[in-house]
Each structure stands twice: as C-alpha cells, then as structure tokens.
C-alpha cells in the first residue's frame, strides 16, 4: 500500500518520500498528456516499479531526479520514449509546473520528495 511520509536517511541525507502523492501525480499526468482514463493510469502505475517499496535515499534520489512527466511518459511509451517522437519534456515548462501544482492542490497531494538538511 502506497503512503506518504516515508522518512529515509543515510549518513549525509534525510528525505521524506510521499510515494502515494508521487504515484497519484503520475496517474493524473498520464490522463492529461496521454489521454487515458484514470483507471488505466492507475493500473499502469500499480504494475510499475514506482509502486514498489522505496527503501533507500539513493532510490528516492533516482526517482526524484527526473520530472514526474518523465516517469509518466516512460511508463506509457517505454524507455527512450523521446526517440519515438514524444517530447523529452513538456514544451512549456511554466505551464507544466502550473499543471503539476494544480493537480497537487486539487487532489490534496504532498510534494513527492522533501529533502531535509541535517543540522550538524
């Protein structure tokens, strides 16, 4: 079961992973950019590595390194999707971030990854 508020640490980093929110955002991006139903998007995400347990800061960092758009397109079109004529990233990044923020606000989602600095 996906949940938010997963705290991961290593010797240098602390991160809160909001995996439920992350996966919900991906589903809504799939419906927006690909035009599939929310139900189909839910099945795609549930069967992907994004819905598997995130157990390390490195795993979280790898997921958080890309825009959620990347993960949505990668899940639907496959690896190297940009070689299939799909834009590598949205043409208008300002509009993209407005869409992300709108989805998160409308569905009461948290930021997918929250990096917390260690106080030394």
């Amino acid at each position: 079961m996906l949940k938010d508020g997963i705290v991961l640490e290593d010797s240098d980093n602390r991160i809160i992973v909001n995996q439920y929110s992350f996966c919900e955002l991906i589903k809504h991006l799939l419906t927006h950019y690909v035009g599939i139903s929310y139900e189909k998007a839910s099945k795609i995400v549930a069967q992907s590595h994004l819905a598997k347990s995130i157990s390390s800061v490195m795993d979280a960092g790898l997921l958080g390194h890309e825009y959620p758009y990347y993960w949505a397109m990668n899940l639907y079109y496959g690896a190297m999707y940009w070689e299939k004529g799909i834009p590598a990233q949205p043409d208008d990044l300002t509009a993209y971030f407005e869409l992300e923020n709108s989805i998160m606000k409308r569905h009461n989602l948290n930021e997918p990854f929250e990096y917390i600095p260690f106080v030394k």
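The chain has a mean pLDDT of 94. The beta strands are 6-9, 14-17, 113-116.
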